[in-house]
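Running low. Got one?
___
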Amino acid sequence: MDAGLTSLQFPVGAPPGPGETLEIAPGIRWLRMPLPFALDHINLWLLEDGPGWTIVDTGYAMAQTKELWQRIFAEQLGGLPLTRIIVTHYHPDHIGLAGWLSELWQAPLWVTEKEWLFARLMSRGAEDFAPLRQRFAHRAGLDAASCGLFGERDNSYRRGVPSVPASFQRLADGMSVEIGRRVWRVIVGEGHAPELACLYCAQTGVLISGDQVLPRISPNISVQPHEPDGDPLARYLSSLAKLREAVPPETLVLPSHNLPFFGLRARIATLAQHHQARCSEILGACETPKSAFQLLGVLFRRMLDRHQLGFALGEAVAHLNYLVHQGALKRELGGDGVYRFTRAAQ
């Protein structure tokens, strides 16, 4: 659990039950869907929208989620249709059922362009991705057997996102969207995803933060194999600073995981401090050359399964790339094809 929770206030102590909704703010209903991961839930939002409902995020594609949606349609919407689907970003728990819901209700998908493009690409499969993943793992210091496992073609995204609508309405940073006579402003965040859409409504004092700001866990910030020299941590920290300036401190934050909370600025400060602490730990460990793989024990003090290893490795490289771009670390490619990082001379 991250430090700083004592500075947050949680107005509701428990989430709605399966197939139920709870009014969390005027015109906004909260529901929760299960996930087949260690992080076992996602919060979704229903917004009153005149003659119907707009939903924000859809849940992971599985039979249980569809059954719960059908119960909500039958019992919780007052007979009104679903008229619009907003998705914050392309990860499977957020966009997984967008295709099914769009077809079921003939409702358009609203999403940023980069997130739609990533979802379309990943849901159709990327046959050339395995060599990229293997090369990424080798550069990070994994052995040959682990690189082979890391690079195996993985259909997990397609299992969670079997279809993505072929067309979309574009959300963009700074634009306003009217939903049920209330105006929501799009604030794009980067780092966790390419172009994640947070939604802020000044009239109700609410921020739908997606995964950009979570109260109890830190969003995964990873370098991806298709952009091995990327600096997502710098973009994430910059996005946190933008949110801090754009959203008033008394705002109610509706996150995708855990409970709604007050204390946005305190949480932003804690998240930024968390990443700076990780960077300090890395610098302390890199008095002698270290690969990303060798640093996993510094950053993650628990056993990592195969699924977690991918996230952990991407996050380790994100912090290393950030420190290289800041001039705090030097990166050298060894004769064995592995990148090793050493603290730069002051």
